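Just curious: can you write whichever protein you like plus the matching structure tokens?

***
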Amino acid sequence: MTSVPGAGTRHTIPVEADSDVRLDLLVARHLDVSRTQAATWIAEARVLVNERREKAAYRPLAGDVVQVDFPAPVGRAVVPQDLPLSVVYEDDELLVIDKAAGMVVHPAPGHWEGTVVNALAGRGGPLSALGGEDRAGLVHRLDKDTSGLLLIARTERAHRILGDALMRREIVRRYAALAWGHLDADRIDVDQPLARDPRNRQRMAVVRTGKAARTTFVRLARYDSVDLLRAHLHTGRTHQIRVHLAHLGHPVVGDDVYGGGGGRRLVKLPAGRHFLHAARLRFRHPVTGADLDFRSPLPADLRQTLAAVARDPAVLEAGDPLAELGFYDEVEVDPRRPRAGSETRSDGEE
């Protein structure tokens, strides 16, 4: 996942030499909104090309500066709530929390309360306002049913620096995933563009005209019917790991949306849960420059599933099964640097 920035912000879209698309389609693709929404913003003069209004059919040229001013979101005021949060690190600039599965990250239709943002507001203390009230402090996101480490900015200074680091791929995010079946190799790089599924807007899909997305999968263990993988996000698109694994024909175990929801009882996975956990987060402190490296062991429900597929009850007693399986070993290095203009600031979720 890219999410639309908060109200009161101006977002610049780079125009590459090979873009050659209408203005409304360029805005829609870049900001992951519908073409109708993009056309509405253009008609409302919220989209300017070189500080001038253009029609939706205008085709920006390389070197053009396309800027989008975002309207205030239609929503509700964030309700502070006294909800449990597992805080693993905290200082004046940022927090790192270990999000529980089933908790939505920010308020949205259908989930106006009970979210991480509601809990942060109820906890008190400053939060960066760069993303708007409903996304206060969020540097990136996690899906509702994905557990693990989440980075929160307290100050706007920290938010800007961390956002830039995320854009430059300097924040390391590693996920533990259990996938149905077996990959063709111990390491696979998936470099496939993602966009809204044209047949179902509630899903993402591999789409030729979508946004660049790359994930590296490393097999840590092979069991009878599943592989335990380490997933390395090189980009941060919505549902990226889940869609890339489904594209390979090996969906995440328990993923009802992308074809992995069957066989729950066989692997002792609770209803509504998929086996995807943000287990490692590493970055430089935005102010001190100190190296920060956080690890989140598998939660109890996923440990139960791992013990079931491994047919080894000792997994339930292990200190950290991921450590024993080499999850935290650094073996992959990305030798490629992003093309100019190919990567935008993203708080994409998984």
User: Anything to note?
Assistant: Residues 1-7, 331-346 have pLDDT under 50 and may be disordered.
